[in-house]
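QUALITY CONTROL LOG
STEP: pairwise intake check
CHECKER ROLE: data steward
CRITERIA: each record must contain a sequence immediately followed by its structure tokens, with no blank fields

ENTRY 1 OF 2
RESULT FIELD BELOW
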Amino acid sequence: MNRFLSSLFLVLIFISASAQKKKQVKLPDPSKYAATITSEDLSRHLYIVAGKEMEGRETASEGQRKAAAYIEQHFRSIGLKPGNGTSYQQSFPVFKDVSETSELVVNGKSFDASKDYLPFSFYNSTATTYFSEVVFAGHGIVEGSVDDYAGLNVMGKAVLLLDGAPAGFKPAAQGWRNASSVYGKIAAARSKGAAAVIIAAKGFPRRPGGSGGQQYTDLFKTEHYPNTFTVSDSVAKAIAGGDSCWNAWVNTGKTGKVTGTVIKANVKLAYSKKTEELSSSNVLAYIEGSDKSNEWLVISAHYDHLGKRGDVIYYGADDDGSGTVGVLEIAEAFVKAKAEGKGPRRNILFLAVSGEEKGLWGSEYFSEHPTIPMDKTTADLNIDMIGRTDTERLMADTLNYVYVVGDDKLSSELKPISEGVNTKYTKLVLDYKFNDPKDPNRIYYRSDHFNFAAKGVPIIFYYDGMLKADYHKPSDTPDKINYPLLAKRAQLVFHTAWEMANRENLLKRDIPLN
């Protein structure tokens, strides 16, 4: 070997050894910075975020905007960079229907709203329709071998339906979308081509409801639902042509299928609304990485809740004020580490989304309009409810656990990292109850991490469980939070993020999305 090649060989050995040494450099101990995530700081933030002034933080409300401003101010005050160009917020459109007028007339007789009927405003469009006949289709259920429309032509027609289902009918799915629910009946009627749906329901007369339908984000739709009205027995009897006919159908329908028929009746259905264009926003900021600043880690939580119902505030302290303030404190811990020369190698995006309670709107909008490259995002650590204990978890470790969801999906490296840092630092019991794909709660699909998973980004979701007594109730208040447990869970997320932000390679994406 000549002198030049010998020198070159030594240089290459030195470079290789240096690279290996760099890869094997021991990470600084993050315990000092994790310890800055304290019960006191979390409590201070949460009594503001879930306080009276925020009015329950409903999406596209003044309370939500106040909460967004508070989160943005915190990100600014600790020195994080804006996560959406020069802005700390990412706005997205929200629409809301406001009911104006409605009318229901049967054979010339007008009925009164609230007393006799209510338009189902969420799905209804502005329209006035006149029908000379109505098709009675039993319960209007279509599922499996059950088809209450069998033998009936309802294309372009109004259908009259019984409420509920016959005794013994068990829908395949549970929840508000099941086949015997109002939604299930409307969806089935739409699939059959019905132009309007009239469902006889209990509980009339009713108190006048609000003038607005639910909010939504999809203004332009591929198809619309038929206008739907729930009506009292008196309206149903007027359409059916008398008490005896309707009573017979109701009695038969209690236990079995009712034969459908065409009813001759002149029915006018009118509904009008106006559509308000509102907006909501995600709040996002990041800390810049050192040598891997083209790669990202996301730590997320939703800061919206249910808002107000009249004068009653739904505070949402655990759901998800706890996750929100956890993100605020985790961000501050990373900033303190960087100030001492121990910042992360990768960028970390701290993302507080809104619209989760409406249907994961904010995270969906972010996933479709990302401000960071999703293919360079190693993981999303999502936090939604970490301040309480599961009232159904009757185990000795109730004050030292957290449910972990999703660490067995998308990347085989998630679980070893999660369990490794927990064993080393926080020593919580990691409960995998909700990881089971057969779990009826389907938690994996119900929070903002799922919109990252759908894009192939590995995720871990942290959760405290089914709090039946206070879940989505005004009683979810800051005084009921277990702040030491909240701090410990937030510290687990911090330690996990520390490992992911500083490891040499992005997480593998070696497990297909189910």
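ENTRY 2 OF 2
RESULT FIELD BELOW
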Amino acid sequence: MFSKILIANRGEIACRVAATAKRLGVSTVAVYSDADREAKHVAVCDEAIYLGGSAPKDSYLKGDAIIGIALETGAQAIHPGYGFLSENADFAQACQDAGLVFIGPSANAIRAMGGKSESKRLMESAGVPLIPGYHGDNQDAQFLQQQADSIGYPVLIKASAGGGGKGMRIVEKSSDFIDLLDSCRREAITSFGNDQVLVEKYALKPRHIEIQVFGDTHGNYVHLFERDCSVQRRHQKVLEEAPAPGVDTAMRQAMGTAAIEAARAVDYVGAGTVEFIVEQREDSMNFYFMEMNTRLQVEHPVSEAITGVDLVEWQLLVAAGQPLPKIQDDLAINGHAIEARICAENPDNNFLPATGTLFTYQKPEHSTFNITDVRIDDGVREGDVISPFYDSMIAKLIVHAPTREQALARLDRALAQTRIVGLPNNVAFLRYILNTDSFSKANLDTALIEREQDKLFDQHPLGLSTLVVTAIAQQLASEATMQGLDPFSKPTGFRAYSDYTRSFSLVYDEQSYSARISNWHNASCTDSKKSGDNLSNFTLVIGQEIANTQDDSNINVAAQTKTVYEGQVSYDSSDAHNHTLWLEGARISAQSWVNNETVHVFTDSGRDEITLVDIMAHVGQDTAAVGSLKSPMPGQVVAFKVAVGDTVEKGEPLAVIEAMKIEHTITAPTDGVVAELLFAAGDLVADGDELLRIDAEG
């Protein structure tokens, strides 16, 4: 076994590798960029060496610098993690040439399987089933369009050197082919430095099922069964589970055998994943080779959970020249495991990646990088910043249980106990998926999110009254910590000779509300738990502001309100974050955190947010709405689709921004004429920077 390794990665996977290395007594060297000086992976490794600038090309993609650091620190091997240089054949070869062990397959195996076109030709010769498509070297756009026309739509354009869902476009009709091809190639160049593509038939109702394989230097191969990764957005995985629902023993054996033969064909060594597209018919499922990922996968923990195997340990053992610890007959499936990828993104805004600070980051009881019922693998801590330079994933939540139904319940409970405040995230969205009929009943395919969109987007699981009462409780509890002990300063509203009344201004779901609370003197509490000095009883009235109107003289009349809720409520706050509410005949336990006036409310039923407006803080401010001509996040201008003087229509594409490895299109908010372009292609922009200006027609 090695005595020291360098981990050529960052974040969660760097922490994951370091955890197993520490357990095995192997010292670790971390590398870090400017953005990662205080990162968790830097803290958990035994040594940490500065690598370069925040952009990947200035740090984590600098293979020569990484190899130099490994040699200087006395590391014997380099673990590439996933992403960055993990599937770079030249880097693997350079490690070998420098006398270092690359913890992964050989450069030849990476080249053979890394190019999708070449790998498909190789699999065809090995007898592995392939989906119809063109995988050749002719990259002329018109020729590729002709191939797509002959294959039949829909087709999938895919970057030949791609992975991780990058560089993929679904084309529904021939007239869209060229534009989507150009977009795919741009993303491929940015992500992989190679714009070669292949074109395949897009299978209807497809499932994405993959096989975890392992090979050693002694010619031994095993598979560790399958994972279903069908739930995807933007061709990137959202939920993964093992074993795959509906796969019987015969199909499992056939897929496992095909995966091993694929690995054997290139003398594969180490951990790899053979991915298949599974076409679902009424009476059968047919699988076709899609690609092989020549590295450890993000979703590897679900395979670890059902087999009891530490795959990173196996990677280190095999790289050190030892044989696989088990043969195929020693491996068996135990129970069911599901992984949820928790990401900094806004599902309700086309999964736009988000940046910001993890103001609040609370997790359920769990293990870390260790097989157990609830496991969380992450590379961040509360207070860390999610930057625009890297992937948007915050953490992976993995659960294991005897059955799929029990695993679903366990995952839902663990997600309900996960609290993230400070930036948009998909925790609530993941819970919505779990509770759809499609997922709960294992009616799986890669279009599940689109099919269930009515139950997944723009959901508000908490009632307005719950949000308002929690926001008020949060405000009064916060004030109580800054007030004295005399009864006149308590937020319960004690008055010697008059009622206590207080008003609040709130915004919820882009609608303005007013709330008024007043003492509830005649409260009759039949619930014995409603007693105590901290209990507050109020009459609550919530009014919804309606649009301004004009009288006959065309003079604006002040905004009117209509009452949308009136009732008696009680709450008990143990501190500013934990509240027990009694309203509408129910007892509700709620937690809340405030960030920039927005109160984030969490209950077992779900989460939502409401803004408690500080009126004085906004005096004199311009309240004009922010238009879509501003960059939605930090990134780089890829291209402008218009020029100064062009006439544009509402919804027409104006500019393309690349951020977090994904392209985002900025569209016109209204009809008009382009007056000014404020940046050029290639420029870096900050969150909220105005990109261009449009003058309204007329």
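INTAKE CHECK: passed for both entries
DESCRIPTIVE NOTE, ENTRY 2: The two ends are 75 Å apart (CA to CA).
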